[in-house]
Every structure is written in structure tokens, then in C-alpha cells.
Prior knowledge:
By secondary structure, the protein is mostly beta strands.
Amino acid sequence: MKLKIQFTKYLSLVILISLYSSIGLQAQQDAQFTQFMFNKLTFNPAYAGSTLAPCLSAIHRQQWVGLEGAPVTSAFSFNTPLAKDRVGMGLSFIHDQIGPTRDWSARMAYSYRIPVEEGTLSIGLQGVLRQYRVVWNDAVLTHRGDNSVMMAENSRLLPNAGIGVYYEQKDFYVGISMPHILENDLDLLEDFVSTDITSLENQHIFGMVGVLIDVSNDIKLKPAAMIKYVQNAPVDMDLNLTAILKNDLWLGASYRFGGSKVEGFGESVDVFLQYQITNALRIGAAYDFTLSEIRSQTSGTYEFYVTYCLKNTGRISNPRFF
Length: 322
């Protein structure tokens, strides 16, 4: 049985890496996070309830500081187990701003958790309500009198749905998800300007995997990976290694594949630091060193994270590694 479980872990990792290797590299529509391994609910509804305690999390990302119109992303999430840990419920809010665009989404997640071998298999569904808005007054015009930007502001409300699967053991997790299934039309100009250009909310597929390795009583290592795939366009992969010292201090480094094919293979090298202040409260910060050709125009990317988990006693018995 133990050999079978170990084989499953490594097989899952190989599958994810093989998926990445078989497809090209481009950009993404969905927001990305350096501390993705602590922010799973925004990617996978099946993660709801996996914390085995009510948990609140918040993350803020300021990307490519110094570059005008660069992405700014904030996410807030809550999830909790119910029905003796057989059901999970989650709620998340995400705000993403890039140039003149403002993107709000609210997601309600439900998961059903099934004991499998020494772990738990979760199947998740979520409903999504998204407001996509463009503030045309913030646009920098290259051609004056462009009829495409005659509006002061325009927006569209988009309903959607997502699915996911997540399996975890005490020292291992793997998951795959599609946070929004419907390919909604994002065109805000169709009522004002005749155009053949179609803007769609493309389907994104996220694969994630992580392992916890006990090096000694005071040191643990946690390798993790996330693959992000969109048909005919964006694919990225983040590889991370985190060292956990005495269950309190978390030191991590990541390499993000992607970026420009002209300048090189990588998009960024990332580092983060987290500290477990109490059994319930952990805070962290991350910094990305940009590797693409815009590195001369930016001073990097900053990200801040906080999470708080509790039980009826007000504290959890052990820090949650996943």
C-alpha cells in the first residue's frame, strides 16, 4: 500500500510536467499569484473544506511596479468544512486591474469530500458572477478621435460556472480545475462600433501538485508546481521549493516558465517569506525578479498574504501545510 501511494505521488508530478512540456508558452487571461500554493480556492473549488477549519485568506499583488497600467490584483477568500468534513463551502472575491480595465468576480464554491485510501478526494463546483468594466478615460490614445473610446465607461455582467477535482493526503496533494466553463463574450463595443473582432472569456485549466518531505524534526521541504493552460494561447508553469523551519518560518523560491521567446525561457524568479505567528495566523510577502525584456522598465513585483484559521476552541491544533 505504501509503495502504491508513493508511486501515485510521483506519477501525478510526471503527468503535470508532461502536460507542460507538450504545449507552447504565451500569456494568460486569469490573474496569477506567486504564493499560489496558499491560495488554491481561487483556482479550484474542490479545495473548499480541505483546511478542516474555517479559514479566511487575503492576498494582494502589485505586478511590474513602475510600469504604467501594470496588473494590480487582490483576492479575499473564506472556506469551511461542514457535515463532519464531508462537505466544503467556499466564497472568494477577486479584483484585477490592468490599464483601463476593472475586473470583479465573486465565486461560491461547493465540494463533496470522499475518503480514499489514506487521503480525501474532493469534487467541486462553483458559481461565478463577474463584472468586466473598462474606464475609457484612463486609456492613452494613439489616435485622437477614435470612435472605439467615445464612452466614459462601459461594463458587462457575466455569469459562469467552474469545476475541479482535488486529492490530498497528509503529505501530498494534486488537483485539476477549470474555474470558468462558459466562454462569455467580453466585447464592450458591439453596440457602438461595427467590428469583426471577438473577445472571449477563454477556458483556463489549472493543474497543481505538492509534496511534504520531512528532513528532520525541525526542517520540512515542500516542492510544489502549478500549470496554467489555455487552448491556442496562454500556458505557464510555476515550480516552487519551500523550506519550513520549526513549523514557524517558511522560506520559498520559485521559477516561472514563460515570458518572451526572444529574450529567454523564463518569466521571473520569485522568493517569499512567511511566518506562523500563532497556530491560527500566518502572514507572508513575496517578491518577483522579472526576467523578460520589460525588466529594465520595472522594479519587480510585490505580493502580500495573510491567513487566519480557527476551530470551535479558537485555535487549530497544528499549522496547515496545504
